[in-house]
Amino acid sequence: MRAGHQADLAVTTLDLRDPVQAQAADDYVLGHEHGTPFHRPAWLLGVEEATGHPCHLLAVIAPSGRIAGLLPLHHVKSRLFGQALVSSAFAVDGGVLADDPFSLAALVRAAEELARSKGDLSVELRGGPAPAAHWELRENEHVGFVRPLAADDEAELLAVPRKHRAELRKALANPALRVEHGWEPRHIRDHYRVYAQSVRNLGTPVFPARLFREILARFGEDADFTIVYEGDRAVSAVLTLYHGDRVMPYWGGGVQDARRLRSNELMYYRLMSHGRERGMRLFDFGRSKAGSGQAAWKKSFGFEPRPLSYHSWSHTGQKRDINPQSVQYQRRIDLWKKLPLPVANLIGPFISRGLG
User: Fold this and answer.
1) Is 3.30.70.20 the CATH classification of the domain at 6-139+309-320?
2) pLDDT by 10s per residue, the chain, length 356
3) Is the pTM of this model over 0.85?
4) Which DSSP category does 7 fall into?
């Protein structure tokens, strides 16, 4: 439905602390075909509380008083990486949600004006429609992976290509491995231990533990953990979001032994079954860097990559240096991999806040 002409639209900043405004925003996101968990107030407030990056939720209000478009922008600040307005911070998707081109244009203008008022910041949009012709398009850097869930466990197993299916069968036959789904304190603790080790091994600083707690608490039943144990030791773990008909494993990884145990294969296979039991229809494996080992691993699991498009704008041309392909960034990764895990876990959260 068209919201009306450009002159009829007003752009305002919603107060996420106001339950009525937050609920109106949530209802709009949940009802929009392109809405994601990263547009929801649960995500926006969780990130703000855990990292200190304030969120400006721009909204187009139609003459009828209803919301006709949303654009959440976290003001990410970092001494190492610089500042930017990001939709949405720590997310792989986001961007403008709008009912029509007029609402889209109004939100884009408002974002540019906000960026100028904050000191000529750059603006980064992850996903969504192209904002305007003068914005920079970034594509082919990342790919996404989505496919329908199969009818049952056996069909899901057969949907995995033969070579990878053989690895999965080895994990299924291992009596020492067991899988749990839940959100108890021990699941939060075990997930963080596994995730922290996993990202350190990849050369990335771990996020603050509070970020995981805030997201889990605010999403309620729309989020949980899946953890694989070898005996009493957690070896693979993932925090999953559920949105509409999608299972969206998000923050996950495995310890050094995960490859030998094939515990990551087992974890995602059991999560597919868990999602099916929850009535989900699609399995969204998230994004990976194009050409990376992680992207190849997901493809070997039976998922076809699709290019993701991001957009950015800067009044001055200045942008943050957070491109993983840059030489400087690669040096940081190589250095981080060499840090002892306790040291990485101690200083990582202070650095990762600025990645956004």
Assistant:
1) no
2) 344 455 568 999 999 999 999 999 999 999 999 999 999 999 999 999 999 999 999 999 998 889 999 999 999 998 777 899 999 999 999 899 999 999 999 999 999 999 999 999 999 999 999 999 999 998 888 999 999 999 999 999 999 999 999 999 999 999 999 999 999 999 999 999 999 899 877 777 778 899 999 999 999 999 999 999 999 999 999 999 999 999 999 999 999 999 999 999 999 999 999 999 999 999 999 999 898 889 999 999 999 999 999 999 998 877 766 555 555 555 555 554 555 656 555 555 556 555 65
3) yes
4) G
Q: Which residues contact 258 (CB under 8 A, 6 or more apart)?
A: 198, 235, 236, 264
Instruction: Please list, in sequence order, all residues whose beta carbon lies within 8 angstroms of the beta carbon of residue 24, skipping any fewer than 6 positions away.
Output: 14, 67
CB 142 within 8 A of CB 288: yes
Q: Which amino acid is at 206?
A: V
Q: Locate the domains of the chain by residue range.
A: 6-139+309-320, 150-280
Q: Which CATH superfamily is domain 150-280 in?
A: Gcn5-related N-acetyltransferase (GNAT) (3.40.630.30)
Return left, alpha or beta for 84; rule: phi > 0 is left, psi -120 to 50 is alpha, else beta.
Answer: beta
CATH topology identical between 6-139+309-320 and 150-280: yes
Residue with the two structure tokens 């995602």: 268
* 191 contacts 224 by C-beta, under 8 angstroms: no
Calpha distance 153→119 (Å, rounded): 53
Tokens 């919301």 found at: 67
Amino acid at 168: L
Closest CA to 92 of 44, 36, 47, 131: 36
**Nearest C-alpha neighbor of 259 from the set 233, 225, 236, 282:** 236
Q: How far is CA 51 from CA 75, 126, 131, in A?
A: 11, 19, 27
Distance CA 260, CA 171 (A): 9
